[in-house]
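YM 10:42: Putative toxin-antitoxin system toxin component, PIN family sequence, as discussed on the call
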Amino acid sequence: MLPLRLVIDTNILISGLLKPEGLEHAILFFSLTPPATWFISSQVLDEYQEVSSRSELRIKPKRRRELFALIHSRTITIEPDIKINFLIDPKDDKFLECAEAARADYLISGNLKHFPKFWKTTKIISAREFIEGVVLHLDTK
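YM 10:58: structure's back
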């Protein structure tokens, strides 16, 4: 199934920034290069920016600028025309809205308890499940 259409939850983005040796960092790198296409909405981007700028995370401004330059240049921004009120945490609905509008194959999250296993055609999956179950089995020929 190539190309892969992805939506990434904020917790994956933050973990990828904080742990360069972690699976989440590998997902960020993978998501910014073919065969992946990373989809965001303005609401998702706003959350990425707000959370990554929290002082307690101690993410250096230069690192944030570099990441957001990549996000702006290598993601596809869509504006969902649907409103979902489904999840336990309503702040997470924006990710389902983005995934549905993008017809995403995967929504990658570190917080699976807030999401169903599937939303329409999108599978909601952890970082480990994505790396081990999807990336390692890609045939890019």
